[in-house]
Amino acid sequence: MPASALATIDDLSRMSGVDVDSIRTYERLGLLPTPLRFRRSKRIPYRREHLDRLRFIQGALAAGLSLDDIGSLLGLHGGMRTCGDIYAIAERRLQDIRRRIDELKRQEAALEPLVASCPKQGGATTCPILTTLSASSRMPS
Predict the structure, then answer these.
(1) Domains in the chain: boundaries
(2) CB of 116 closer than 8 Å to CB of 130
(3) Contact present, 53 and 18 (Cβ < 8 Å)
(4) Residue 42 parent element (H or E)
(5) How far is it, in rounded angstroms, from Cα 55 to Cα 38?
(6) Are 93 and 73 in contact (CB under 8 A)?
(7) How many whole angstroms separate alpha carbon 89 and alpha carbon 110?
(8) What is the fold of 1-66?
(9) What pTM value is reported for the model?
(10) Which of 52, 55, 73, 98 shows a CA-CA span of 20 to 30 A to 8?
């Protein structure tokens, strides 16, 4: 789309791969500028800048950043951002992802032997997964 070309929200959705509801959500959150409406037209024109911003949002989401983080990167939560500010946002998110990975590994370590020990047949009352989980829930904290 050339810089001055106009597109409808459906066109923008098709070009970006972002559904219309998400585009409207990004507008409502201020992540995507609301396009100016022409007086007599019912169509709201989107421009190249909107497509570029959507691609930025998609890249940031794919990297694990939250919509709040994206707003910070875009300077929506206060003035210009320095590279150090941007680094802090990315580093904080990276640490959060690493904590979640560690938690998932702990969960995997707890669940893997239960799954391996299950005969996959018989009644629920004799299932070793339920038996072990029930015994765990009776242990004092």
Answers:
(1) 1-66
(2) no
(3) no
(4) none
(5) 25
(6) no
(7) 32
(8) Multidrug-efflux Transporter Regulator; Chain: A; Domain 2 (1.10.1660)
(9) 0.75
(10) 73
